[in-house]
Automatic annotation (TrEMBL):
<keyword id="KW-0732">Signal</keyword>
<feature type="signal peptide">
    <location>
        <begin position="1"/>
        <end position="35"/>
    </location>
</feature>
<protein>
    <recommendedName>
        <fullName>Lipoprotein</fullName>
    </recommendedName>
</protein>
Amino acid sequence: MRTRRAATAGKLTVVLATLALVVAGCGGPSPRAWAASVCQALSPWRAEISKLTSSTQQQMTAQTTPAQAKENLVRLFAGAEEASETARRKVEEAGVPEVERGTEVSAGFQGSLGKMRDAYGRARTTIDGLDTAQAGPFYDGVRAAVDTLNKEYDASALDTSKLDSPELKQAFDEVPECR
């Protein structure tokens, strides 16, 4: 009898703990908390992308061999790809903001960062596949890869017109992490 009660109590504890997790998972972070988390995720990403842009421009004009330029560009684009995935993952970890259409807002941010990650990955793969035997064709290939990257990057921008949230707009304007 005692064993049966202990087993029942143990099952009840597990059910209650699971229910508590489910209920706790229903409410997402406040708009301010979510905006702060997103800005903390995007700040290092922006810095990395800025560094990439500057470094790519330098590589395109530097007096290096095609093999050196290829190695440097592949490394730079791999870094941007990794930074984009890290930012995407951190936005995912921020959860869903407690606002109307919060799921769509979070998914939009994650989707945009995922598309950027993929664009950098494709640019890295394209440049890694270029032949470095002749400088002219190599740099033409690099320019084409960067042009494609820029188009894909522009196309991956988050369309905020459908995800407009006054609470999130205010939060992004107010939290110190976003300044």
